[in-house]
Automatic annotation (TrEMBL), chain A:
Family, similarity comment: Belongs to the YciI family.
Lineage, opening ranks: Bacteria, Bacillati, Actinomycetota, Actinomycetes, Micromonosporales
Domain YCII-related: 4-110
Pfam family, one: YCII
Protein name in UniProt: Transcription initiation protein
Length: 139, 408
């Protein structure tokens, strides 16, 4: 088994579609999908993000980071939220992504989430992080 | 794995479940036509491209084949004549009913784990129909030849049909007992995956994780059953130790020597949450919940010395009352050794030897050897450990025993 993150990537247009959609309907559609993941026994975590317009962007192109307010209309893709699922293969993660409710124009990126075991265990920073994960019960 | 394989893993339980209901409870027919549809997909999709609605395609293909069978059989069996007739109404035969699909999957689990089947048959049929594993995958996981698995599944389906096992979630009166049957199948699968009884691989994690996944499915479909949560908790807490159970060369590392920093904390957290659910029911813990509670004592202890062994002794006593077994007695003896010393534990073990309740098991001489060693009775200890190594079927566990002998 391996953990995969399904990263939802919307656009300004899909954001607009979402704003127009019925909230109740959306809750039901997403809720049904989440329920499928739960019933299949594969859901690890899921979070959706607040409105991009409420966010800020830190840009590192200059010598010092520059902070700008959202919305960042010039971007083509907006990170909207994610799922982490525990499945046996990448293909299975892809099949789940295909079932995800999404507005036309949106995309979903699928990336494997490596475990801390895959990092050098004698590195002091890895050890430190490991200790923190132990204390807090993190992923 | 192809996309066909991935889709099958996700959908097989629902496809076979829906088809079984459609075929009037005939699991054998449903599974056959589902497998035929899968075979057809494996041949056609790579060539012609994946259909827009893969699940719909699989269902429609399986249904067509089912109707062919209904018609063929209608000559000699009225039941199939009715099924074939019903299907000419132009509808989809209520094949995919979103309101019933959860019950179909549940019914499938209960039927696959039905007590008329042998334990091996229950395991194979569950992994095949509910888990969506192929005969090859099941054979690999259980280290048996593929034809053996195929024969088990074929026989199992015939037994279900001959015994006229109804395709349904058992009525409340039978629920508790039948649920126990389902849980024991998942437990066997988990245990087989987490401790191989033979062969060279100590942790066949994927099989264990599959059992855990099916237990989560069961919890979602049949909420409020404390023992389902107990089994999930036991599975999560046991699996949390997987990263620490084997050394760099694949050798087994015993609990006391494990680097606890390597335990999977997320799994522990999930396990403790599930144990909380099992406890919250307030009906007292069952066998799985109690084993999970024992695993939780280990999972939350910083070291062997810091473990609450007295609590573990009490939990084993409770476990011995609800699910008496010599293995539980042996484990209780190990806990007693930790809580009160080896002499008291040896008395318990000797009682097991005297009553010959664990004949042929390597565990008994292995524990006895260990206790004798701690009591300084080295010659006797050596004899017991040698016996244990001879009886042990798992190559890696045997090496641990041999190392103990060398260390003397």
């Amino acid at each position: 088994m391996a953990k995969y993150m399904l990263i939802m990537r919307g656009t300004d247009d899909t954001q607009a579609q979402m704003a127009k959609a019925s909230f109740d309907e959306m809750l039901e559609t997403v809720g049904r999908f989440n329920d499928e993941l739960i019933k299949a026994g594969v859901l690890v975590a899921a979070e959706g993000l607040d409105d991009a317009a409420q966010g800020v962007v830190v840009d590192y192109s200059g010598e010092t980071p520059v902070v700008t307010d959202g919305p960042y209309g010039e971007t083509k893709e907006l990170f909207g939220g994610f799922y982490i699922i525990d499945v046996s293969t990448k293909e299975e993660a892809v099949e789940w992504a295909k079932r995800m409710p999404a507005f036309p124009g949106a995309k979903c990126e699928i990336r494997r989430v490596p475990g801390i075991d895959e990092f050098p265990q004698d590195n002091e920073w890895v050890k430190k992080e490991r200790a923190w994960r132990e204390q807090t019960g993190q992923l | 794995m192809s996309s066909v394989g991935a889709i099958w893993r996700i959908e097989s339980a629902r496809i076979v479940g829906a088809l079984t209901r459609y075929a009037g409870g005939d699991l054998e027919l449903a599974e056959d036509v589902a497998q035929e549809a899968l075979a057809e997909a494996l041949e056609k999709w790579p060539r012609d491209g994946e259909p827009d609605n893969p699940v719909g395609w699989l269902l429609a293909t399986a249904r067509r084949r089912a109707i062919d069978t209904f018609r063929r059989r209608s000559v000699r069996d009225e039941k199939y004549a009715l099924l074939a007739e019903e299907d000419t109404d132009g509808g989809d035969g209520h094949l995919w009913d979103p309101d019933r699909i959860d019950d179909d999957v549940l019914a499938l689990m209960f039927v696959a784990c039905h007590p008329v089947l042998s334990p091996e048959a229950r395991v194979a049929l569950t992994l095949r129909t509910v888990g969506g594993l192929s005969s090859e995958e099941i054979a690999r996981a259980f280290l048996v030849p593929v034809p053996t698995v195929q024969a088990r599944i074929t026989r199992a389906k015939k037994t279900i049909a001959a015994a006229r096992v109804p395709f349904e979630v058992p009525p409340p009166a039978d629920r508790k007992e039948r649920l126990g049957g389902v849980l024991s199948v998942l437990y066997v699968i988990f245990t087989e995956g987490s401790t191989a009884t033979s062969g060279d691989v100590l942790v066949r994690k994927d099989l264990a994780y599959e059992a855990l996944r099916l237990a989560r499915t069961l919890a979602a479909l049949l909420p409020g059953e404390p023992e389902v949560f107990g089994l999930i908790a036991l599975g999560e807490l046991t699996a949390s130790r997987f990263p620490a159970r084997t050394g760099p060369d694949g050798e087994a590392i015993l609990l006391e020597q494990q680097d606890r920093r390597r335990w999977d904390r997320t799994a522990i957290r999930r396990g403790l949450a599930a144990l909380g659910q099992a406890t919250a029911a307030g009906r007292g813990l069952g066998p799985y919940g109690l084993q999970a509670a024992i695993a939780a004592c280990h999972a939350t202890a910083a070291s062997v010395a810091a473990t609450d062994w007295e609590r573990i002794v009490l939990l084993y006593e409770a476990l011995g009352r609800v699910a008496p077994s010599p293995v539980v007695e042996l484990n209780r003896a190990v806990a007693v050794a930790m809580a009160s010393g080896p002499a008291e534990a040896l008395a318990l073990v000797d009682e097991l030897v005297a009553t010959d309740r664990l004949p042929g098991s390597y565990l008994l001489p292995s524990v006895r050897g260990e206790l004798l060693l701690r009591l300084g009775r080295r010659d006797e200890a050596r004899g017991e450990l040698e016996l244990a190594a001879r009886l042990c079927g798992n190559e890696r566990e045997r090496r641990v025993l041999l190392r103990k002998l060398e260390d003397q």
